[in-house]
Amino acid sequence: MLNKIKKICEKACPSVYYRVQKTYWHILGLPHTVSGTYTNFKKQISDYLKIQKNIRSIISRANQTGHMVIYPYNINWNVALYQRPHHFANFISQKGIPFVFVTDDKLNPFFWVNQNLLVIDESYYNHLLKSIGKHKKNKLKTFLLLPSTNPFITTDDILKLKNDGFGLIYDYIDKIDEEISPQNIDLQLRRHKDILNMGLADLVLCVSDLLYKEALEYMPPEKVLLIENAVDYNHFHISRDPNNVPSRLKSIVEQKKPIIGYYGAIAPWIDIDLINEVASRRKDWNFVLIGPDYDGQTTKKIKKLQNIHYLGPVDYQELPNYAIWFDVATIPFKRGEIAKTTSPIKLYEYMALNKPIVSTADMDECKKYRSPLIAHDTNDFILQIERALQLKDDPEYLRLVDEEARRNTWEARVERIIQALR
Known about the structure:
Elements: H1 2-11, H2 14-28, H3 38-65, E1 67-71, H4 84-94, E2 99-103, E3 110-114, E4 117-121, H5 125-135, E5 141-147, H6 155-163, E6 167-172, H7 185-197, E7 203-206, H8 209-216, E8 224-226, H9 233-236, H10 247-254, E9 259-263, H11 272-281, E10 286-290, E11 308-312, H12 319-323, E12 328-331, H13 337-341, H14 345-352, E13 357-360, E14 373-375, H15 378-391, H16 395-406, H17 410-421
Parallel strand pairs: 1-2, 1-5, 2-4, 5-6, 6-7, 7-8, 9-10, 9-12, 10-11, 12-13, 13-14
Antiparallel strand pairs: 3-4
Helix pairs in contact: 1-2, 1-3, 3-5, 4-17, 14-16
């Protein structure tokens, strides 16, 4: 039918186009608002036929392996700072399990990352679900990987998917908090309670000890896994190359002052006041901050001091080339529940970079390891940085931090998830 529509569009005049378009939207189940010019419409049909072929291809692969994972739209694939879902997608697919990552990219509505990882635009999400129902074989187990911070999927959506034979992996990634994920916060809270109280999840992944203990109050232990964040060790375990200093960092490196670094979201839970105070006292240190301004406001609080350098976002592929020039890597979270329940990906990446790490006091997940140095106030933060500078070339410390990185890889985390699903 769609090929017929395509041929009609190739020959039809624009007056016929709108009638054809209406039929097209009905068949695809897409909103009528996704429209455009006559030429664009022909391209949309062409894209649809191509993506239909690719969806069938990944379902065919899933029928062979027996498992498939879908990550519904929550974060875009092409972002500077890779996060937990990107790593899950990469490493689950590398283990041979087909994975579909749903993004928001109308200009590039589908592409393959590897032979088992397909990225599609969110406008094709419903078609994906329908195609799975139509083409899957009985043995295929398809799981929705739903993060606790997703602001779109409702309990009713989950119940419908469960009724259609889908499984649910619930990723309890953060304490549900308006500072972290303000969009539709009431929906997130209601859904979270429903998933735990009604036992809707086949598997619950918890990013920290506190969230793990909470989930165990509702779910049987065999359905709950503690899956902290981790590191792509080979990506971050690099050496300094004096001939390849990033241009934005070069003038800072040339000053030959110790570089105290942080990368990640520049967000309300980062203690900017602490950074400002320490930088004011220690003008013999340079402070480098890398990452997106999470709320468009936090970077405004950074003092305009000569030794504080906010570089903005850096692409994940280039990030190790920047962070390798840190002398000390920091995790300066404010005190509170966000800090206590967060498993910072950067902790494990700093380890793989073999950097001494200084964290603030409420980072409970950092306290589980021997390498991070924990600071309890501003004075202690300065003292711990001084101590870290003494450790940065210490062979015994560097062995410790490297061992801890190697024990906390995404490969190992994903293997535990796969074993639990089988």
